Amino acid sequence: MNLTAFYGWVAQHPDFAGLAVFLIAMAESLAVIGLIVPGVAMMFAAGALVGTGALAFEPICGYAVAGAITGDGLSFWVGWHYRSRVGSLWPFTRYPGMIDRGVAFFRRYGGFSVLFGRFVGPVRAVIPLVAGMLAMPVRQFLIINVLSALLWGPAYLLPGVVFGASLDLAARVAGRLAALILALLALSWLTLWLSRRLYAYFRPRTHRFILLSFDLCKAHPGFSRLATPLIEANQRDYAGLLAWAVILSAVGLMASTLISADLLAVSLEAWRNPVADYALAIGQDLGELPAVLGFSAVVAIWLLFRGRRIALTHLLVGLGFAAGLGMLSAIMFTRPLVDGPVLNGAVAYGFTAVLLAGWVPATGRWLAYGAAALLAVTIAFARLYFGDGQLLGVGFTLALASIWLILLGTAYRRHSPEEAPAESLVWLAPFTLGAIGVILWCNHSLEEFQYHAPRIAVSQQEWLTRGWHRLPAQRAQNFGRPEEPLAVQWAASLETVRATLTRHGWREAKPLDLGPALRILNPEADIAELPVLPHFNHADADALRLIRPISEGRWLIVRFWPSGFELADPSVPIWVGRVAFLEAQEFLGLLKLLDETGDDSEALRLFAAELRSYLPAIVQGRGEAVQAVLVPPETP
């Protein structure tokens, strides 16, 4: 499933999206639970879907308001029902100070605290609970609860709506790059958020888990043979690590035998563009053996000269498992479930993070793990982007690498108490990674990823009879909007197309440079003075944009892209074009932008009628639905 399919699914199932918004709003409003639910980010995402047109604002806002009312109502009921016992119940025992602050806030503002608290981060998750504890009149609470929710829903959705509207504009300009940047930012934020949450959860519980492991070893001798070497500091752990490496390798190979990596096929082909290709090629190369071994060699040499032999041994064991399983999987399977570059990068950078985490202040250790997780996720995303990896495969590999790193890191920590901190690795590792990145960057160039599709030659007779069906019929897009028809096919040089239309009243649209860009701030600007942004079809920007007035405030616009076809003997390129109505729209009352609106078929009908008055244009179609307007070369 690509982004277009997801976007289309959301648009076709708004009730499911509405239910999700309801649950998010309710969870965000529940006592204490609202502290750990990223409700603001999720409501922002829902608003972005509204802004891009996948969802309607009114029902989604209604779901959000209903969820907020329900969540606060449940919190109020808990406080009303349990009153003074609330502080002794889980999870409220974990946040006694917050309840105290909520009580102080409520005593200060009274009933209005329910209204204010809805928008005040530190206390929003406990104010309804406190209102119930302090016996606020039910009718008063309900009135203020409903009123605050009616304000809260639009307030939390509108920023996302504005962003989504801007993103929709960006998508129509350079959708692939915009979508890719958004996806990478969201993925980076989620990775760092999870890293910090997981570190905060496991750090105070590590000792408890080790004690539990000792108890399990006593109760289960079979498990003891595997776990004791890792957690018992007085025993060598290499045999235990070897046993776990064999088990995990067997799991990986067996999974590759039973499950196809293509089971959850995801294509990011629609996001491909030369700039992103260039950047993500570096990301993918960071997981390949040359980069991994180069980085690990620098770390290993540093460990050797510093006398950190235990750390060096564990690094080599970790890399041996990753490289061995990756190469074995590639030899045994055509499309293995174990993704070698993802496994190599995750283990190499992940174990380096384990080393760094022991040598940085406790408050910043999660950053080391977060940085390693970002690198691993970037490699995985790049593999998906180029189609070299599959979603199920990279997900399985990341899970396998995480288990191996937990085992490897635990064994290292339990067997290296004598190794003192060494801060120099904190700067050496990032510097080495940066140097490798620069080398990889220099090994590629933007021209390497420029795609020049070969032209397919057809005869004029073949094109006019059957060949026109083979040319692209719709413009490729990313955000699930109705596909825009490429209904004009013109066989001529681009200069001929421009000159012909210019002679008959068309003019070239203003490009996006400083002068026209500043005119979008002028509410009185004429359409002809405003910049017309380029649209992309796959990786190609439109090669020609021409506009023509047809009535007061309304214009026609025609755009042309290369089709990949040409007429043979003589060689003449065939361009595909789209005709639409062009109108000026105000954006938030601040900007005046151009938007292509209206009925494409009506715009095409007007264009075809005008074109046939001075060119031998041929209208091809089935029944009454016009399929294409073909313009053959003018005979001399």
Write structural notes for this entry.
- The chain has 636 residues and is of the alpha+beta class.
- The protein folds into three domains: 174 residues, no CATH class; 230 residues; 176 residues, no CATH class.
- It is 59% helix and 12% strand.
- The strands form three sheets. Strands 1, 4, 5, 8, 9, 10, 11, 12 and 13 form a nine-stranded mixed beta sheet that branches. Strands 2-3 form a two-stranded antiparallel ribbon.
- Strand 6 and strand 7 form a beta hairpin.
- The longest helix has 65 residues.
- The chain is flat, with a radius of gyration of 31 Å.
Task: Please give a quick description of this structure.
This protein is of the alpha+beta class.
Shape: flat
Number of domains: 3
Terminal-residue CA separation: 50 Å
What fraction, in percent, of the residue positions are helical? 55-70%
Task: Provide the structure class.
Answer: alpha+beta
Query: Quick one: biggest sheet?
Result: 9 strands, mixed
Query: How many alpha or pi helices?
Result: 23
- Our Rg estimate from Cα atoms comes to 31 Å
Indicate the proportion of strand residues.
Answer: 5-15%
Number of extended strands: 13
Q: Give the overall pLDDT as a whole number.
A: 76
Oligomeric organization of the protein chains = single chain
Poorly predicted runs of 5 or more residues: 1-8, 169-174, 478-482
